[in-house]
Please model this.
Amino acid sequence: MQKILRISVVLMTCLVIGYLSGMVTRESITTWYPTLVKPVFNPPNWIFAPVWTILYIMMGVAGGLVWTKLESDPENVKKAFKFFVLQLALNALWSFIFFYLHNVLLALIEVVLLLLMIYETYKQFFKIDKNAGRLLIPYMLWVSFATILTASIWWLNR
Model:
């Protein structure tokens, strides 16, 4: 029961962060974002919500799995969770910088930091629970794509 509760708490936290990030983007998706020149590989807007929902679910399960190891490996779990919380905060911050502040260059710098924090979180999680680490791989890949997309949007609109 404790394992399910811990996974559920982290899962709900990730989904709330995702929801709040979506709230920040909502207005700009219809006003500012359409005015930007985007690369040919820019996905349609409708794809982002389902992809991010799946990624937040995977992040939450990964975080919950690591949290369940707290009693057996407290030092590494606490260290891993510091990276997890930091990358989650950076994740939310990107939406604010890009969609609310409309600062594409700062968003590009920030998404590179986010990607580095996701990679470090992946390494820390993988040491504790291999499945938790594996659950972060699609997130890392998507944010890698988001980094390229952000760089392209910055380049095309500078």
